[in-house]
Structures are given as structure tokens and as C-alpha cells.
Amino acid sequence: MNKIQILVVEDDAPIRNLITTTLKINEYQSITAMNGAEALMEITSHNPDIVLLDLGLPDMDGIEIIKKIRAWSNLPIIVISARSDDRDKVEALDAGADDYLTKPFSVEELLARIRVMQRRIVLMQESTPGNSVFTNGNLRIDYVAGTVYLKDVEVHLTPIEYKILCLLAQNIGKVLTHTFIMQNVWGAAWENDVASLRVFMATLRKKIENSQNGVQYIQTHVGIGYRMLKIEG
Ligand code: CA
Q1: What is the per-residue pLDDT for 232?
Q2: CA of 35 to the centre of ligand 1 (A)
């Protein structure tokens, strides 16, 4: 039995049953909540490893639940939303969600997202604050020296590219919104300039991905943001 326990927050019974059945078949433990109040209660009493959170709940908006959870916990949250509008996903991610799925979704997609979160949990446990070197596949960042390597060849990044890469690395597995990246990279001087961010991202990716035979470190979420993927093996 998989030791990962997943809280499924969903008021729609057929969808909730589909998810819990899928989890059971794949040897995950699950607990359920039908509304926001129950969700918060289950989290405090059972301390699950991952939350699958429907945004449209009868008693509370999903965004409010995310904010409440984030006030005291880093618990990975995957938002499940019927809302196809990118602004809702961005709002959920900015409130602290780690990832999102749009209804309708396939069970394969759901399981893939859960696996990303499982890797994220392992990485969060491994990365102690004092850890000065980050590695992912052939990519290595030496935070103390401020240098980046692919295999053992140094990659020359501009200061902005380096800051973006470090931010993605420190949040590996999590989808970061354009706004989050711009605020963190440019600080107080940040402007809402997604076009510039795209340019920096393109040059960064060219430097770390093009020579790597198709290895993709950074995933683009159109209209939303970017995520660093954990490279297997
Ligand atoms: Ca719902």
C-alpha cells in the first residue's frame, strides 16, 4: 500500500467517486470532504500528504481554502477546476496552489499530476535550507558561487536568467505564475511585463535545454506561467 494519503475535496459525488476509485486502484489512500469546512477539519485531524481541491464548493470559495491552508502549511494542493478561465487558475496558484487540473480530465492526467507532487514532497524533504547545491538531471546550480553547470560545463547566464532559474529550482514541481516570477525576480521594481519575461525565459531555455537532446527542464503553461520539472534518472 502506498503511504501517500490524499484528501479529495469535491461536492460532486460522481466525480468524487471517480477520483477515490482511481486512487484506490493505484494504491493511494484517500479521505474525502464535501465542502470547505470539512476539508479544513480533515486537514487538521488527518494531516494528508496531498490535497485535490475543487474550487466550486457549496460553503466556501476554493481560493479562500487555499489561503487558509497556506497560513500554516506547505501541504501540496492540486486545484481541480471546472472554470476554464486562466484568471481563476492564476488566482489559485497565486493564493498558493501547486498545480491545477481542468474538468473534464483523464485519470491518467490526474495520476501524472499526483506523481509530480510526490516528487515535489521528496524534494522538499531533501532540500534543507543550508543546502548550497541544487541538482536536477544534468543541471547543477551552485548557489554559493552563483554558477550553473550542465554536466560539468559551466553555463553562462545573465543575472536575470540566473534569478529566474533559481526561483524555478527552489519551487521545483510547482507552477509559478507570471506575476509571482516577475515580483520575485525584479522585486520592488517589478512591472507587469510578460513579454519581457517570455524573452528572458526563451534565452534561458535555449542555454539549458538546447544542447540536452530534448531534455525539458522548464514547462510552459500558456497564459499562466512556468514550472521546473524533475528529470528522472
Ligand atoms: Ca463543485
Answers
A1: 80
A2: 9
**Number of other residues whose CB lies within 10 A of the CB of residue 117:** 23
Does pLDDT of 2 surpass 70?
no
| pLDDT one-digit tens code per residue, 155-195 | 999 999 999 999 999 999 999 999 999 999 998 888 889 99
Q: How many CB atoms lie within 10 A of CB 85?
A: 11
Compute, in angstroms, the gap from residue 177 CA to the centroid of ligand 1.
24
Place of cell 520592488: 188
Instruction: Quote the CA–CA distance of 109 and 128 in Å, as a whole number.
Output: 30
Cα-to-centroid distance, 25 and ligand 1 (Å): 23
User: pLDDT value at position 205?
Assistant: 95
Neighbours of ion ligand 1 (CB under 5 A): 11, 54, 56
CATH number for the domain running over 129-228:
1.10.10.10
What CATH homologous superfamily does 5-125 map to?
Response regulator (3.40.50.2300)
